[in-house]
Model the fold of this input.
Amino acid sequence: MSKEASERKAEGKKTYDLHIGDLNFHTAPQIVQATIDAINNGKTTYAPPRGIPPLLETVARVVGEERGIHYSPEEVCIQPGGKPIIGKFLHCVMNEGDEVLYPSPGYPIYESQIDYLRGVLKPYVYRETPEGFVLDLEQMRSQITPKTKALIYNNYHNPTGHASSDEEMAAIAQIAIEHDLWVLSDEAYFHFVYDESKKNRSIAALPGMKERTVILITTSKSWAMTGWRVGAALGPKEVIDMFAKLTTNDEACTCHPLQWAAIQTFANPEVQALREVMFQELKARRDLIHELVNQIPGFSAVLPPSTFYTFINVTKAMEILHITDYEEFRKRILHSTGVSFCTREHFGASLEFETQKYIRFAFSGISQTDIREALLSLKKFMDSAQIPN
Amino acid sequence: MSKEASERKAEGKKTYDLHIGDLNFHTAPQIVQATIDAINNGKTTYAPPRGIPPLLETVARVVGEERGIHYSPEEVCIQPGGKPIIGKFLHCVMNEGDEVLYPSPGYPIYESQIDYLRGVLKPYVYRETPEGFVLDLEQMRSQITPKTKALIYNNYHNPTGHASSDEEMAAIAQIAIEHDLWVLSDEAYFHFVYDESKKNRSIAALPGMKERTVILITTSKSWAMTGWRVGAALGPKEVIDMFAKLTTNDEACTCHPLQWAAIQTFANPEVQALREVMFQELKARRDLIHELVNQIPGFSAVLPPSTFYTFINVTKAMEILHITDYEEFRKRILHSTGVSFCTREHFGASLEFETQKYIRFAFSGISQTDIREALLSLKKFMDSAQIPN
Done:
């Protein structure tokens, strides 16, 4: 999609980037300055595979405080982004033929990594209700067998924007404990929660969970640093030791000067204040999309309590256009309106029992002005499609 | 060793770092400035998984010109360092149970990655002659079976400092072609060749080799950027496409602002001039070590034609000290003289037919003054050890 969108722009056609989960915000100047200082101070040599000690201490302290869990620096491994943690987690906890529960729709790397490592795909699903999406706990339970080894949980969820209630999170923890599962808690969107009652929750903080959970954090989304590639895994020491060993063999270390800069990312109050400014802007975009998208014939969306995504039910819109194929729908809209987005199928293969069709709008990389224009363009197109020829 | 050396220093004991293959040179200011410019220009978002087009073009052109090979940008994949290329190469070309030839002694990651991916270890060896090390082609040939799939070749070789003659390289190419092997050509030390007749050689440039070879390059050593983590794989498009797919799943991309800086690394003439200054200093260190080490009882070393390592025969020194175990020898010397180094066993498991004992001195991170002191300290220790009590 990025390529298609770029090609359209190169042809001079107005294109609205609602497909990308990247951010149109600048990285904080304090982080930039810290990078420059680190380079000038000669922090350009190898770093320890698990990360530089002051960053390990900072991450252990800040991530622990935010979630109400105690972590020591020995329970942290710095990584070149959040993504490497997915593969490493699976390398650590599963063997060929083991089953892994993961969200579908979900971040596509879960499915591709489980599959690549010859695990057995066990997707669990979300149901849309008038109050928002809920995780289908019954369906999740039905997927579990004695060969199920791990559960990937992405609260605050890409692409639905779902945030678990305390009850739902407790039920998932219970399932993990009951079936002795390792849990990867992908917390990439931890700082993007609009519903106060659902903020600052980590499943690792629940009783019996810390010892079986690896938390994935990343600077990518929270601080508009997607291209910097700095993240961290937090978990039981024996797993983190394995992460360090894998890092020694796979990458040597995470970029050394950026690790010094990352201390500012986590610990500098001015940087957190800038993050709050970005958060408020994202909230305004979310509210604007919610208002406008529900005025478009065939489009309906619940208000996402977290992330910077809106998962939109387009079952009726596809019926109006007499389209059953996701790619055909996506391309028709893109070429008719300039609106670029992802469909459900960018987040794992569709499951056979799905009856509703969804697309995802990302509002991380688009201004409110362009959101208005994009959704007006879309509305015009769908309004005219409704009129019989 | 790094930990032991650090602990000694913390206790106020003078320690000579001859163990580390890291560099005590500053990264060129042009590269630093390009990093700052890239950050300020907003190059902080995701980059394409294979790398930014201008860097792909630069790497294809410069690496090709240096070696006399034509590469197109589609045959390049930027990586977060040289190391990730080893694992990815093996992921691409071998399956469980396949045999892989690799140098022993050699960079330890070859052995650990082949083993981790359940390949069969097929070490090939080097023989010491009065003229230097030579690769034992007969022994290499004897290791090959119909299950041999790949050959890892590290010309300019860590830890021996060996550089192939044109005849030796041609013979290796012939073996690869005859047995239809994939080749990983680890060229991390490409710019550190002191013997003019062996400079600028890549096995990929030989007839029939480009289509079966992946070249590993890295900014780490050539430009004193070990902690930056920028490297690149060059090879046939179908393999590079697989590298890009693995990168999408494993890392997303290599750090975006550093990719803009890396263009300077490869293409800026001022940066290459600074590399030449570093090279001349390393050459002086090499010559100094060569002169001094051969004056130490029980130590003998041939002059390395490449890299920044000297591989020292200590068979007699161990006999003088009545030590048969490498670790005991290393620790005795470290604690008696402050000289910190790696032994043969840091570069893969010793092979049963080995009769000679070796250690490696790295002269990349130590001044000439400290080299003199270190080798004087070592000489005094060995001189006194020779005198019967």
User: Anything to note?
Assistant: Residues 269-293 of chain A form the longest helix (25 residues). The two ends of chain A are 30 Å apart (CA to CA).
